[in-house]
Design brief:
The protein is of the alpha+beta class. 33% of the residues lie in helices and 16% in strands. The mean pLDDT is 91.
Length: 209
């Protein structure tokens, strides 16, 4: 199957920063997050939906993931099942996305490759489940994710301007920017701003191009 260009504004570096903000918020409110490794970043949302940024090196990247409701290609990465072929005639390094899904025992719904200039995907006839507004792939999606985390942890609803500033800062966010977003009524639940800042910094230090 042919490769098709993907119209997506986010570069791999943009996604690194979105993951960093998500990790900072989660760490600050005491929730688990996936720490970055030299090979990949991994994010998990509701109903086990997930997305990963895999970095094979040389400026390339893979965006892999699965949506529990919309990915009709499910099964292609779990436990060695055949499922839908999301690699096809793409360069061999695309298989790193399949390997990542299998290593995490996850269904693989979408797989996009970044060649250093733009994103590409295999010309699949079914819905792969990737909507950038549902995953940490756009600033607006990150705003919705933070809103949800604040609500789930009983924090005050954050101001969207403060969220936007946090997202813009990315992995280099400051304690002041994070504290502006995470307001705890009457000091409960406790918020560990320094833990959040440390989590964000992991994404600037451990993620190669």
């Amino acid at each position: 199957m042919a490769l098709l260009p993907v119209d997506m504004d986010a570069t791999p570096d943009d996604i690194v920063n979105l993951f960093a903000v998500d990790a900072a918020v989660r760490a600050a409110v005491g929730l688990d997050y996936h720490r970055p490794t030299s090979a990949a970043l991994h994010w998990v949302g509701d109903e086990d939906m997930w997305m990963a940024l895999v970095r094979p090196g040389d400026g390339r990247a893979l965006l892999a993931g699965w949506h529990h409701e919309f990915s009709l290609t499910e099964g292609s990465g779990r436990g060695g099942e055949a499922g839908t072929d999301l690699v096809g005639d793409a360069p061999g390094w695309w298989r790193r996305g399949v390997e990542h899904a299998r290593a995490n025992d996850g269904y693989l719904g979408f797989l996009y490759g970044w060649d250093g200039t733009r994103w590409w995907r295999l010309d699949q006839p079914v819905d792969d489940g990737f909507d950038p507004e549902l995953f940490p792939a756009t600033p607006l999606a990150m705003r919705d994710i933070i809103d949800g985390l604040a609500d789930d942890t009983l924090l005050d609803a954050p101001d969207h301007d403060d969220i936007d500033a946090l997202v813009t800062a990315g992995a280099e966010l400051t304690a002041e920017q994070l504290a502006a977003v995470l307001h705890a009524p009457d000091g409960w639940p406790e918020v560990d701003i320094e833990a959040g800042v440390r989590a964000a910094r992991e994404f600037s230090a451990n993620v190669p191009a």
